[in-house]
Each structure stands twice: as structure tokens, then as C-alpha cells.
Design goal:
Blueprint lengths: L7 E3 L34 H11 L4 E5 L5 H14 L7 H8 L1 H6 L5 E7 L2 E9 L10 H6 L5 E9 L8 H16 L4 E6 L6 H6 L3 E5 L11 E5 L7 H4 L2
Amino acid sequence: MRHEAGAVPVTSATTATAETTADRTGTGPGTGSVAAGTGPDTGGAAAVLRADEQGRESGYVLRTATADDLGGARAVMLDTVYNDLKSGYVPRWHADIIDPEAAYLRPERCTLLVVEHRGEIVATGAVRDRGPQTPPNPRWVADRFPSGTTAQLCRIYVRPDHRRHGLARRMVRALGEFAVRAGGYEALYLHTDPAVPGAEPFWRSLAREVCDERTLPGGGQGIIHFELPMPDIGGLDTLAG
């Protein structure tokens, strides 16, 4: 079993989602995420401790998901795809939402994080070990971010009442640290739908644009592909004791 990473209180929240209305990677919108499962916890005890020190007073706790969190995480994800992304449940896109244990808890190099506030799961975020697929994505984008060496960030969703507290930003940092510790990842990738309010400026503040499909002939899928820098986690392990 993967050991549960410690509590990571967070001090702020952000925009609704990092993923698009449809996960145009070919495996479904916002699919990567951690939850308690089998395999070693490759992600972040240190990140958990640091966040815990920084944010406990805010009442937000960012941590690795456990099996007990799956119902709450699923509710956040489904509410987001219905109310914010307007896609509703689409089996080929959202299989990971229905079975997050198989998608994120069992694979050793995948993870699902949750933010808990007063006993309620209010935000989610995940890493999966698959890059964007072609079709529907441009071949050169898929070639640049191959599965296995690409950590794809997905399902970064925050409930509306808890946005504007920096939760998504802290989630992204923690997911990046997980990817570094997991080993074997050479890139952090994500895509977003600029039609989602706040999504494009949020990701532009953190990541570098790789391809804006709106500039392609016919407008492509209308999404933007981004690459995030791999975080420097030097010294964090000493914080974990």
C-alpha cells in the first residue's frame, strides 16, 4: 500500500479548472490524480510538511487522497464537468472520475491530491503518466510529450466557494514535486480550455505556451497546450526529517 502523505494545509484558492471541457488527450478530461492505493508513496512527505506549516491556520489541508476521500473527490470532479465545463459525464473522457482508484491510487507514478476544509473535500488535482495522444492533438505536441516520461497535470478543480484562496497554485506546486520524486519524468504538461473563465491567465502565470490551437488552420480543438518547469525540490527532504 502507498503510505499516506502528511497533511498539507493550503492558504489560497484559484480558478475552477486546469483541464478542458474535454480531456483532449484521448483519455478524457482531467484524468490524472492521486488517491490512496498500492505502491510506494513517491510523492511528498516534505511538501506536505511545508504546506502544513504554511497553511494550517487557514483551515485548508492539502494532502494525498485516501480511499475514504474518493467520494468527495468524485463529487468535486463531476460537479465541475457538469457546471463549469458544461460537458457533462462522457464515459470515454471521464472513466477516471468513476474509478479514481484504478486511475490514480494503484499506479505508483500517478497521484491524486485533495484539499479538505472543515471535513469537506473542496479541491482536487492529479498527475498521470500519459502524455497527449494524436489524434486529436497535433502530432508534434504528442511527440514532444511522450507517455512514460511526461507527467500530465489534470483534474485541478476547486469548488466555486473556495476559489481565490491560492488552492490551485499550491496544488500545482505539490503535483510538480510529486512528479520529481516519482522519478523518470522529464516534462510537466497540461492543456486548458481558454473558454473557461480564468483558466488561461492562471496557466499563463505559471507555465509556458507550447501550442495555442486557436492559431491552427480551422482553430483545432480551441485549446492551449502548456509546459510547466520541473520544480527544484532540493533541500525539501531535509524538512521531512
